[in-house]
Amino acid sequence: MITRYTHLECHQCGKTYNKDETQTFCTDDNQPLVAKYDLSKCSPNELIAERNDMWRYQAMLPIESIENQLHLGEGGTPLIPLKKLGSTYDCHNLLLKDEGFNPSGSFKARGISMAISKAKELSIQSASIPTAGNAGSALSAYCAKADIDAHIFMPEATPKVFQVDCRVMGAKVTTVPGSISDAGAMMRDKNDGSWFDITTLKEPFRLEGKKTMGYEIAEQMNWKLPDVCIYPTGGGTGLIGIWKAFKEMKEMGWVSSIPTRMVAVQTDGCNPIVTAWKEGKDSSIPFKSPKKTIANGLRVPHAFGNKLILKTLNESNGYALDVSEEEMMNGLSEFAQTEGVFLSPEGAAVWEAFKKLRKEEWIKTDESVVLLNTGSAYKYVENIQEAYS
Ligand SMILES: Cc1ncc(COP(=O)(O)O)c(C=O)c1O
Asked: pLDDT tens, 227-283?
């Protein structure tokens, strides 16, 4: 047996579901399902020493057979110390988890690799997704590898490179006027029931792939978790996933405590989570008329997992804040010219959020801070080139 996976459970009502069902979310209360494991049996000895990718943590992942794991090199990304910026902003344990190194250029590779590995395990033939770009690229790549048809719906405003990337990989791409919510509505309308809908958190396995960021951060920090973790939040899977990993590790005794405060960053042109968090709500309402942004991944008017995102922020004594387009552009240049890393605009949003929290002294000088750069900037050149030509 390669995994300790036992069943699926609704995060809200606790109803359990068989692990082999192609169940996508809780039918009773329309909330995400989460994968559960027999954590009492997991020990660090189960880490797969010879693997440096996310499959190193296969005991805590839901795939039952090694033959179904789809490997393109997902995970195993560096945790880079930011000495220069740390010194400028007087924060001496500042680290960047750089997810731009993943296959297809973003952290989406982790979640989609897991979802499509599971789809393969369950003999699914077709998958569909609404995407801001990066998830579409990842789905196209893993579906090509698994011989599964990929149906991709993306907003018209998505940089062209994503459309080309998906089509080269053999996916069927439909562009849709409006936001990712409109793309999702169109996808559901076209689905005759034969496509496995892997919309963020409407199936439970992408979360499991994304949680491996949390396992890696812990291992790279020698099993001592950071004080603060800052994450660019659209659908929120990474934020929820990292927190899930931290809690699993605590339950297994791999870490002795969880000091981490989780931070969600959005743009000021589409900030439903920030608004709900500031108002002390436990769910968010759909954001009307999201503005155009250079950070396409953050233009999410309504996250299906909004309750889980807010629960994560509350449980961790975290924070939610937004940044402007101008701030992201400035942050991108500052970071590149100081640390030599070309951040995705979503990563630049995280950087700007760090500066605000440091200025407010919400982050103290001696605290350890992990910034998530969720993707490669090279796919976003179309969004930022004007400022540099
Ligand atoms: C680069 C990048 N960062 C962040 C996000 C938001 O991710 P999540 O849906 O996990 O909040 C996306 C989503 O498309 C993205 O592409």
From this structure: 999 999 999 999 999 999 999 999 999 999 999 999 999 999 999 999 999 999 999
Mean pLDDT (the chain) is 96
Residue 251 forms part of a structural domain: yes
Residue of 101, 107, 139 to test ligand 1 pocket, by largest number of atoms within 8 Å of CB: 107
Summarize pLDDT for 324-342 with one digit per residue, the tens.
999 999 999 999 999 999 9
Name the residue range of residue 249's domain: 79-104+206-388
Report CA(31)–ligand 1 centroid distance (Å). 20
Atom 16 (ligand 1): residue with closest C-alpha?
A: 297
Position 113 in a domain: no
In the chain, the number of structural domains is 1
pLDDT in tens, 49-77: 889 999 999 999 999 999 999 999 999 99
Does 267 sit in the ligand 1 pocket, CB within 6 Å?
A: no
Question: What are 157-163's contacts with CB under 8 Å, separation 24+?
Answer: 157/292, 157/296, 158/131, 158/132, 158/133, 158/296, 159/133, 159/296, 159/379, 159/380, 159/381, 159/382, 159/383, 160/382, 161/379, 161/381, 161/382, 162/131, 162/133, 162/134, 162/136, 162/137, 162/379
User: Cα(233) to centroid of ligand 1, in Å?
Assistant: 6
C-beta of 238 in contact with ligand 1 (< 6 A): yes
